Amino acid sequence: MSKTIMVVDDSGSFRTVVKLALQKAGYTVMEAGDGKDALAKLAGAKVNLIVCDVNMPNMDGLTFLKTLKTLPAHKFVPVIMLTTESQEAKKAEGKAAGARAWITKPFQPSQLVDAVNKLCV
């Protein structure tokens, strides 16, 4: 059975790039446009891993991550932050909130797939 990855990013074209890379690696992909959308779509869904941007409207990635970790059903889902943010302070905030990996855009799809393969067990 294939694993399900949720991609949370406000850029539709960017979600498509990530989705294609993950589907090529054999994953099923769900998409969400921001943190609020992601939380709504996660209700009753099972995902094995989440790839999330930091800067989004409605609910940013770090707020989403902190909220996600309070939900019993999704508390242990690994989250990879995929963002243009590269400041150490942001990375530290992400790590403190529970992010398992931090990949900076622009990125190589193979780099993302490697990280997903490691964390998605």
Percent in strands: 15-25%
Number of β-strand runs: 5
Helix content: 40-55%
Rg, alpha carbons: 13 Å
CATH topology: Rossmann fold
Mean pLDDT: 96
Strand order of the largest sheet: 2-1-3-4-5
The separation of the N and C termini measures 12 Å
SS element count, helices: 5
The total domain count is: 1
CATH architecture: 3-Layer(aba) Sandwich
Low-confidence parts, pLDDT < 50 over ≥5 residues?
none
- In CATH terms, the superfamily is Response regulator
List key phrases describing it.
phosphoprotein; 41% helix; 5 helices; Sig_transdc_resp-reg_receiver; Rossmann fold; CheY-like_superfamily; Bact_response_regulator; 5-stranded parallel sheet; alpha/beta
Write structural notes for this entry.
The protein has one domain: Response regulator (Rossmann fold), CATH 3.40.50. Helices cover 41% and strands 19% of the residues. It has a 5-stranded parallel sheet, with helices on both faces. The two termini are 12 Å apart. The mean pLDDT is 96.
Outline of the structure:
Keywords: Phosphoprotein. The protein has about 120 residues and is of the alpha/beta class. Helix content is about 40%, strand content about 20%.
Write the layout of secondary structure elements.
Elements: E1 4-8, H1 12-24, E2 28-32, H2 35-42, E3 49-52, H3 61-68, E4 79-83, H4 88-97, E5 101-104, H5 109-119
Parallel strand pairs: 1-2, 1-3, 3-4, 4-5
Helix pairs in contact: 1-5, 2-3
Protein name: Response regulator
Modified residues (4-aspartylphosphate): 53
Domain Response regulatory: 4-120
